[in-house]
């Protein structure tokens, strides 16, 4: 029984904020090289003598970055988890993942392997979770050390560094400390990594390997199973059925996504009130998962950059709640805004797809034009046109910028109407200044907006110049880049690697 290590990526929602909550609106979501890792191995070797008689098994969850360890008893009869550690350091996402994975294993394993599955469970489950530094804000530590706000300062941190808490208020005893995050969807990536590692460990799926399987197609059925269980566990842990784009990108990588109908998870919501999981899971696996995803990633020679403005992030659920309230109170105006926003989203998608297609068919011309535009402000791009094919590229680049400005305008309007800071004034100034830099195609607030990280899409090698310029705005450029790969089987514990992906990708300045 070897340890299984799986990883899943964080995300950036480029377009589709708020709209993605309702079918059939689509969102463009990019997966990133920031990954969450889950390591699953047996807790006991060999079996404890009384293990068959006790009817339950032990589950240990370790989170080294938070210096936490939690122990649970898992009933093998009804799959309930009892928390037996001292203190209340529960992790509802991992708890739901464990219960749903074991139920899925029992529902799918054939009769002849039933005994070996039960024996495997009796060895206990030892689960370790680790998140790339990019998921968390280390801005305070960098400032406390007197270091400049640069990607180099981030790259100098040890991989999987300890996470600090945001202590709000002076009465620390009565308030739960909040982890400072960058908005990359850590709970979805963590849940997906744990589900994938457990299902692989329990023999339910065969995950694609990070190194060998760049073609995920042959693993589609396995990934679909990981997706269904991860979505369900994540929704139940959150206490609500979200759009699911963060889990979908954690499983399948970058994509154009349309959400599933929320009813597909209704049987799981019933389980919370006491229906046995072993009855619920087969229904979920057979359910009509009607989400839609198509391949999408940034066109070649374009780089995704993220910057952390240092305002501490926003609460997405409360902002979504305010927008929904506004929709109810002013259906006419909100429908109009959504329609315009949807059109701007589609226009951006169309222009980016046109650029990808052109790059495929006329690579040399595409490459030379992108590189020459990368050192100029956008108003000078048309001066680079010397033949008709160049005109097509520049038109698409400027069309993409216009679409992004339209998206920002309508998102801003929606925020004003709903009384929430979707694009706060401080972010507007920063984004306008970023859009005005050489080689910047797009800049915006990802997802639901607010004070989380901002993103930019740059041309050619313009990224390092933008990162340096951001420092003067007191914005910390993160090490995150787009990586279209979804959930993967890893060859080893990531802590044993000499160079982590975050350090190897830090050659940006």
Automatic annotation (TrEMBL):
InterPro entries for this protein: Erg8, GHMP_kinase_N_dom, Phosphomevalonate_kinase, Ribosomal_Su5_D2-typ_SF, Ribsml_uS5_D2-typ_fold_subgr
GO molecular-function terms, A-Z: ATP binding; phosphomevalonate kinase activity
Gene3D superfamilies (UniProt xref): 3.30.230.10
Pathway(s): Isoprenoid biosynthesis; isopentenyl diphosphate biosynthesis via mevalonate pathway; isopentenyl diphosphate from (R)-mevalonate: step 2/3
Residue ranges occupied by any GHMP kinase N-terminal domain in the UniProt entry: 180-253
E.C. number(s) listed in UniProt: 2.7.4.2
Name of protein: phosphomevalonate kinase
Organism the protein comes from: Pyrus ussuriensis x Pyrus communis
């Amino acid at each position: 029984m070897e340890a299984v290590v799986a990883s899943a990526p964080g995300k950036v929602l480029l377009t589709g904020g708020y709209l993605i909550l309702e079918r059939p609106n689509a969102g463009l979501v990019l997966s990133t090289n920031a990954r969450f890792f889950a390591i699953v191995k047996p807790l006991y070797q060999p079996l404890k003598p009384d293990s068959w008689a006790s009817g339950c098994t032990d589950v240990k969850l370790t989170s080294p970055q938070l210096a936490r360890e939690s122990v649970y008893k898992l009933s093998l009869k009804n799959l309930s988890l009892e928390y037996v550690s001292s203190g209340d350091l529960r992790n509802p996402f991992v708890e739901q993942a464990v219960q749903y994975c074991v139920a899925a294993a029992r529902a799918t394993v054939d009769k002849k392997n039933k005994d070996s599955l039960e024996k495997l469970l009796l060895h206990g489950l030892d689960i370790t979770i680790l998140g790339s530094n990019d998921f968390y804000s280390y801005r305070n530590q960098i400032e406390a050390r007197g270091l400049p706000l640069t990607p180099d300062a981030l790259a100098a941190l040890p991989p999987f560094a300890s996470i600090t808490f945001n202590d709000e208020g002076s009465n620390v005893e009565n308030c739960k400390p909040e982890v400072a995050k960058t908005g990359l969807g850590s709970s979805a990536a963590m849940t997906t990594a744990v589900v994938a590692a457990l299902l692989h460990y329990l023999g339910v799926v065969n995950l694609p390997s990070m190194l060998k399987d760049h073609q995920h197609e042959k693993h589609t059925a396995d990934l679909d199973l990981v997706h269904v269980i991860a979505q369900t566990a994540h929704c139940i842990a959150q206490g609500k059925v979200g759009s699911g784009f963060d889990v979908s990108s954690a499983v399948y990588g970058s994509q154009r996504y349309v959400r599933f109908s929320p009813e597909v998870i209704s049987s799981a919501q019933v389980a919370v009130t006491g229906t046995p999981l072993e009855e619920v899971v087969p229904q979920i696996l057979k359910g009509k998962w009607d989400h839609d995803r198509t391949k999408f990633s940034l066109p070649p020679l374009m780089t995704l950059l993220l910057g952390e403005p240092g305002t501490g992030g926003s609460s997405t659920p409360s902002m979504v709640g305010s927008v929904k309230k506004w929709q109810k109170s002013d259906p006419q105006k909100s429908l109009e805004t959504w329609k315009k926003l949807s059109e701007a989203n589609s226009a951006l998608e169309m222009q980016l797809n046109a650029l990808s297609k052109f790059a495929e068919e006329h690579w040399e011309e595409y490459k030379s034009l992108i590189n020459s535009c990368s050192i100029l402000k956008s108003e000078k791009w048309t001066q680079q046109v010397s033949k008709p094919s160049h005109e097509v590229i520049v038109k698409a680049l400027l069309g993409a910028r216009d679409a992004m400005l339209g998206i920002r305008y309508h998102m801003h309007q929606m925020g004003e109407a709903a009384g929430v800071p979707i694009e706060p004034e401080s972010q507007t100034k920063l984004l306008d200044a970023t859009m005005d830099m050489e080689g910047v195609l797009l800049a915006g607030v990802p997802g639901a907006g607010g004070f989380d990280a901002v993103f930019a899409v740059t041309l050619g090698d313009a990224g390092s110049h933008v990162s340096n310029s951001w420092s003067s705005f007191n914005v910390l450029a993160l090490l995150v880049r787009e990586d279209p790969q979804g959930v993967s089987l890893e060859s080893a514990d990531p802590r044993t690697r000499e160079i982590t992906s975050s350090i190897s990708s830090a050659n940006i300045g």
